[in-house]
Write a structure and sequence with these properties.
single chain, alpha+beta, two-stranded antiparallel ribbon, globular
Length: 89
């Protein structure tokens, strides 16, 4: 992931991400292994007014997993920590 140039590659191939998907992935990459709470991610990516909109977060994580995970049904990059949040790495 090249944050400065807003580019993501997977196995040498470019991955097209929407601006929101890129921002969310950047939030994950900046803190690998750290549990990120839904409200924290929503505020950082969408803004304070979206702090409780977990549906939009889940939908975006789903789309992001479809693009970057080898097996989106068994994610290895973006993992769900049940009842807590998400981790990356």
């Amino acid at each position: 992931m090249d944050v400065a140039n807003r580019q993501v590659t997977l196995n040498g191939e470019p991955v097209h991400l929407t601006p929101i998907e890129f921002s969310l992935l950047t939030e994950f990459v900046c803190c690998p292994g750290r549990v990120r709470l839904p409200g924290e991610l929503l505020t950082a990516v969408w803004g304070q007014e979206y702090r409780d909109d977990v549906t939009i977060l889940r939908a975006t994580i789903y789309r992001l997993r479809q693009k970057i995970e080898p097996d989106p049904a068994s994610p290895t990059f973006i993992r769900t920590e049940p009842g807590v949040g998400y981790t990356f790495g």
